[in-house]
Amino acid sequence: MSLARLMFACAAIALAAGCAPQSTNVPHFGWDTKVPGKTIAMKWCSDCHGIDGNPVSPQFPRLAGQQEAYLVKQLKEFQTEHRSDPAGSAYMWGIARVLTAQQISEIAQYFSAQKAVPGPSGNTALESKGKELFHQGIAAKGVPACASCHGPQALGSGETPRLADQWSHYVLAQLDVFHTEQ
Predict the structure, then answer these.
(1) At residue 160, what are phi and psi to the nearest 5 degrees?
(2) Res. 12: pLDDT tops 70
(3) Residue 138 burial by CB count (10 A; 0-12/13-18/19+): exposed, middle or buried?
(4) Residue 11: which of 86, 80, 62 has the closest Cα?
C-alpha cells in the first residue's frame, strides 16, 4: 500500500471514529492552561485513544501502560512538529501545540498508569515468525533483535516504547514511517 493510500485510509478511519484534524488551537471542551492533564486525557485524547488508553480502532496506538517518558517525548515532538508520522501529525500537531509542560506530564502519567488490554490473536504462524524476529533479529541482514531495545517482554523502558499489546497494524505503520525516513 502506498504512503498516500495509507494516509487516506487513516484519515477516513479517524473521521469515522470522531477524530478530525485540528486547525484551531481550541479543543471542543474549552481549552485552558489550568485544565488538568487527566481531564484532557479523558475528554479529548479519549476520542481516538479510548478513555483508558485502549482504543477500539487499530488506527490509533494504545497508550495504556506505555512508558511515561516515551509519552512525554512523543507529545513534545508533536508539539514542536518534529514527529513525522503523517497520520498522527495531521491530528496531533494541532492538539499538542497548546499543551503546557505540566499538562503533557499529567497526560503521560495518566496513560502510563492505565492497564493495557491485549488485542486478539491473529495468524499464529506469522506471530511465531514475529516472535523469532523480535528475540533474534536477522543477523544475515544486520537487523538486531527488537528485544535488545524494547526488552524481552516488549515493555520498553524510559523513552523506548512499550510494544507489548500494541496493535500490529500500528506497529507496521510506524515501521513504514521509520523506513521511509531512512
Answers:
(1) -85, 120
(2) no
(3) exposed
(4) 86
68 or 124, higher pLDDT = 68
Look up residue 110 and give its three cell numbers: 495518566
Cell triple for residue 65?
501502560
Question: Quick check: 114 pLDDT over 90?
Answer: yes
Q: How many CB atoms lie within 10 A of CB 105?
A: 16
Q: Which of 121, 103, 97 is nearest to 35 (CA)?
A: 103
Give the mean model confidence (pLDDT) for residues 41-51.
94
For residue 35, how many other CB atoms are within 10 A of its CB? Answer: 18
Rounded to whole angstroms, how far apart are CA atoms 107 and 94?
16
Rounded to whole angstroms, the Cα distance separating 38 from 19 reads 19
120-134: per-residue pLDDT in tens? 777 888 888 989 999
* 2-to-167, 173, 174 alpha-carbon distances in Å: 20, 11, 14
Q: Which residues of 49-88 are buried (b: 16+ CB within 10 A; e: fewer)?
A: bbebbbbebbbbbbbbbbbbbbbbbbbbbbbeeebebbbb
